Amino acid sequence: MPAAIDGRLISRDEVQHRARAIGPGAASLALLVVNISEDGLMARCEAVLHPGDVISIDLPDIGRIDAQIRWALGGRIGCQFEQRIAPDAYNTMLTAMRAIARN
Q1: What residues contact 82, with CB distance under 8 A and at least 6 apart?
Q2: Residue 69's CB: how many other CB atoms inside 10 A?
Q3: Do 52 and 79 contact (CB within 8 A), yes or no?
Q4: What's the pLDDT tens digit per position in 18-62?
Q5: How far apart are CA 76 and CA 86, in angstroms?
Q6: What's the Cα-to-Cα distance from 13 to each of 1, 5, 38, 47, 85, rounded to whole Å?
């Protein structure tokens, strides 16, 4: 979906990346990241999470990054990173995600 249609300023890249995260209460979470940008991501997650919760996600070449849950609906979550990923680091991470998906 184009950014202008859903109100985002930055478009997202479609991915299919399995990631681990730490949630509230130090709970281990399994995520399937389905789209991502320098500012945040959308993922599928079986755990019950709520807007305002903060999770710490492991991303390729980035390491662990904190993100706040902005919305949660039907096994999907939308997250905003606490700190924006720098463009060069983002491109390296995206390349690594796509390489992992091909293998």
Answers
A1: 54, 65, 66, 67, 68
A2: 19
A3: no
A4: 999 999 999 999 999 999 999 999 999 999 999 999 999 999 999
A5: 25
A6: 10, 15, 10, 24, 14
- Number of neighbouring beta carbons within 10 Å of residue 49: 21
Q: Which residues contact 27 (CB under 8 A, 6 or more apart)?
A: 47
How far apart CA 66 and CA 5 sit, in angstroms, is: 27
Structure tokens at 28: 């281990």
Q: Decide: pTM greater than 0.85.
A: yes
Confidence of residue 4 (pLDDT cuts 50, 70, 90): very low
